[in-house]
Amino acid sequence: MDIYEQIYQRLYASGEPAWTGSGYPRAWHNLHENLTTLKDAALLPAPGSRILELGCGNGSMASLWFAREGYQVSGVDISPTAIRWAQENFFRQGLCGDFQTADVCHLNQLPEHPFALIFDGSCMHCLTGKQREQAWHEIKRLLAVDGHFVLSSMCGEPRKEEDRRHYNPAEYVLYRDGQPWRTLLPLPLLRQEILEQGFIIQHQQVTNNPWWDHVTLCVVAR
Ligand SMILES: C[S@@+](CC[C@H](N)C(=O)[O-])C[C@H]1O[C@@H](n2cnc3c(N)ncnc32)[C@H](O)[C@@H]1O
Questions:
Q1: Which of 19, 125, 134 to mutate to test the pocket of ligand 1 (most atoms within 8 A of CB)?
Q2: Is residue 12 included in any domain, yes or no?
Q3: Does the keyword Transferase belong to this entry (predicted)?
Q4: 61 Cα to the center of ligand 1, angstroms
């Protein structure tokens, strides 16, 4: 069984609120602040526009925020349990959302360019090796002309000793149980990757944490 599916089965069974478990209120607070900043800077499309969250999990983070703001929300996640949970959460709250189990590297079932905004639900840093290139290809295929992409990603070096032991700084990969687990790029390299994909960076916000930094980058095609 896929590792993310295992994690979501456990989270759901133990009654956790979302991926972040007991850290959910803090994660929600940070997300709310970041998205409000983007909204106030007029970097979000108008409510009613179509948005897609990559790695939407149980829908309780960005998808929920956008749905409450009046956007047409779609979300994809590799875990079927997360997707069922997102559907359940939205149904219970009387919200509309189109949630599908899918790999963000292969979104052929979605038509070209429907989304005014694609939001990375901290999914891009879960992709290692050639998966990242595949996901960038899909983002560009799915984003409307003049659409915005918001990357929400770990960045910098791990600060905790335990994490540093499992980090390969030559490939910028954090390992878990001997397997590539996270791409953890220094911020300048993350910015370079975005530019190489043909985007312009319009906004950057970094949150410093005791473990590693987290960046929100709002970008638009050149
Ligand atoms: C850090 S979690 C964040 C989940 C959710 N956005 C949130 O904020 O609660 C990353 C999510 O990406 C999903 N994911 C990882 N790799 C994926 C892939 N290749 N395709 C789709 N989803 C993926 C995981 O299942 C997980 O839900």
A1: 19
A2: no
A3: yes
A4: 11
